[in-house]
Amino acid sequence: MRKVGIYYAFWTHEWDVDFIPFIRKVGKLGFDQLELNGGTIVTLGAGKQRELKAMADEEGLTLSYGIGLQKPFDVASLDESVRRKGLDFMQRMIDAVAIMGGGMIGGTIHGYWPASMPVGMDSKQPFWDQSVKSMRELAPYAAQREVLLNVEVLNRFEQFIVNDSHEAVAYMQQVDHPACRILLDTFHMNIEEDSFGDAIRRVGPYLAAFHLGETNRKMPGTGRIPWSEIKLALDDIGFDGPMVMEPFVMQGGQVGRDIGVWRELVKDPDLDSMAAVSAEFVRNNLM
Ligand code: MN
């Protein structure tokens, strides 16, 4: 049974926040899963990590973790000392998630975000190779701790290493470890893929998690992403992972800045009811 989830930052202006209010409310809005910021989780002590996990259990909620590694932790860096820092940071995040019972870490875990290729370089091959090398080190470490690492396929304006489903499959074949899988996101797919359905079928068994968003990152069900084509493809590959919506509609703060919300996307948004309506849309159209 596919789970329906939401990313906490829908409600926040900053990435680093207290997660408790979101753990307490998203179940009541119709969600089975809540995605948190893995970078914040690392900074909490084991006591607090266990408290969040216990609270999620009380609410019947699965937790997952998203991260866009920052440049000082770039696991695809050609500078070995930076790459090692990135590996250390990822290992600490895997340790934290292990304390919380294991689960999925997804996002830019294979490079940094936002990133474009350094000036003067014409080929991404050296970064690709470093990235694969890092994931081959991290995947066994994650597997021993019941953590799954999901590499998110991102559009060209945010990352340069794995931009589409063809590259995702090639990357999976090179990493070749069951604890490293793929996360597709309809917002990024809309920019890079020739076909939503073909991309999902191509990634097939490597697809462990799916992010939902419209072309402008509004709530799923409010725009022109071809949800029925996507559902058919998810059914064809027997997808039973989480579908986590990742809408952003608020201007302001570091979240608004990083996402590029420069206009009023929704007038006087009632975020809780918008989330509930969209959860219902996903249940009716993608399950
Ligand atoms: Mn995403």
Explain what you see.
The structure is a single chain. The chain has 287 residues and is of the alpha/beta class. The chain has one domain (4-286): TIM Barrel. 43% of the residues lie in helices and 15% in strands. It has eleven helices and eight strands. It has an eight-stranded parallel barrel with strand order 1-2-3-4-5-6-7-8, surrounded by six helices. Helix 9 links the parallel strand 7 (207-212) and strand 8 (243-245). Helix 6 (165-175) packs parallel to helix 8. The longest helix is centred in the first third of the chain and has 20 residues, at 80-99. The model has no long low-confidence stretch (mean pLDDT 98). The structure holds manganese (II) ion. Manganese (II) ion is lined by residues 152, 185, 211, 246.
Summarize the structure.
The protein is an alpha/beta fold and 287 residues long. 43% of the residues lie in helices and 15% in strands. The longest helix has 20 residues, at 80-99.
Judging from the principal axes of the Cα atoms, what is the shape?
A: globular
Rg result: 18 Å
End-to-end separation: 8 Å
Number of strands: 8
CATH topology: TIM Barrel
Ligands, ions, cofactors: manganese (II) ion
Q: Report on the biggest sheet.
A: 8 strands, parallel, barrel
The DSSP helix count reads 11
Number of domains: 1
CATH class reads: Alpha Beta
CATH superfamily: Divalent-metal-dependent TIM barrel enzymes
Q: What do the pLDDT scores average to?
A: 98
Secondary structure category: alpha/beta
What is the CATH architecture descriptor? Alpha-Beta Barrel
Strand content: 5-15%
Helix-strand sequence: EHEHHEHEHEHEHHEHEHH
Helix content: 40-55%
Task: State the strand order across the main sheet.
Answer: 1-2-3-4-5-6-7-8
The parts where pLDDT drops under 50 for at least 5 residues are none
